[in-house]
Amino acid sequence: MTGPTVEQAITRVHHEEWARMVAGLARRFGDLDVAEEATAEAFVAAAERWPRDGVPPNPGGWLVTTATRKAIDWIRRESQRYAKHQEARIVYDGDPPESTGPVEDDRLRLVFTCCHPALAMEARVALTLRLLGGLTVPEIARAFLVQETTMARRITRAKAKIKAAHIPYRVPSADDIRERLDGVLAVVYLVFNEGYLASEGDDPVRVDLTDQAIHLGRLLRSLLPDDGEVAGLLALMLFTDARRPARVSQTGELVTLDEQDRGAWDRTLIAEGNALLRERIAAVAAGGDPPGRYQLQAAINSVHTDAPSTRDTDWSTIVALYGRMVLLDPSPIVRLNRAVAVAEVDGPGVGLAEIDRLAEVLDGYHAFHAARADLLRRFGRGDESRAAYDRAIDLAGNPAERAYLTRRRDQLAPSATVGTRSDQRQARRQPRDR
Length: 434
Hints:
Blueprint: H1 4-29, H2 32-53, H3 59-78, H4 82-92, H5 106-114, H6 121-131, H7 137-144, H8 148-164, H9 174-196, H10 207-223, H11 228-242, H12 267-285, H13 293-306, H14 315-328, H15 332-346, H16 348-356, H17 366-378, H18 382-395, H19 399-410, H20 421-428
Helix pairs in contact: 1-2, 1-3, 1-5, 2-3, 3-4, 6-7, 6-8, 6-9, 7-8, 9-10, 9-11, 10-11, 11-12, 11-13, 12-13, 13-14, 14-15, 15-16, 16-17, 17-18, 18-19
């Protein structure tokens, strides 16, 4: 097997096995640097040997064996202490690792290790995306809207702090788990988002990441069955993933919510998400904690999936839910999403006025310019809409999204500068200081 076929096999096994390999080696050797470096070296070896020798019958097993040997070599190179040599031989001889906590899945254990409270929240999320999701530094930097060099330093410092503080590779006690839960949920959700609409690369959707995030969400649910935000995050991912079959066209273009074939949505996942939401509504009604941001996002997505079309969507409820989210998380992204919903209720002029207030902080975010371009188009300001589409296309990393934005831009009339009468009335009602 040679050429592109080998490259495809390596790419596929990287998606399927990276997290499992890093987590397994981290459990065996207790060192994140060793785990990551050995896994990376195993893939380098595959890239060198598989084109010559052919892809092995069990690529994952070959990589695990190779990575284990690389880890042992790494330890021997880095330390001449007899105890380290002995530890490496014991592990290589196949002795089962000791139980290290109440969660048996190595990947979830790795999430909790990386989300230790000794680390800053941003470092916890970034490090786990790198080690568990196998995302590159540019991909993680895009998710955080920061420079690549900044993210690289953040990850390096986080790993160094784990080593210096002797943070153990195990799930903390039950009393400590909740202290780390916010970071864990953020990790899982960012992994899901990167898979659902990949920020870079040729694949618009990375099913391996979405499936992994949902798997981790289910594990968290089994660990903390009464936690509302765990249930909310799982429901949110299920609702979102249910729309995946209609998300990208056969020509590789992003299909937005208003254009999707809703008959292609996975109704089984939607039903599971709705069941989780009903459970949380009952719990809140019985005196439980009020819903957090993930439960509110799940509720918003439930409104979308329940509507037979965009026109039939209960946008007023969505605006109200986003209003509650702003109280919990007044971030620019939440305010952007609320403004888009406001445009559906009060018209594009009102929504555009709210979006424009976010221009300075979200100038480097492609979705800001895409939303603004759409509202400018609906408002009849064609030249400004075209410029906003150009900016969004330049910033978008996903090929399917770029294709969609390019089509929408090219559909603009040469000089559509006059809006509908309804839009003009909305313009006259805009705040003068917008």
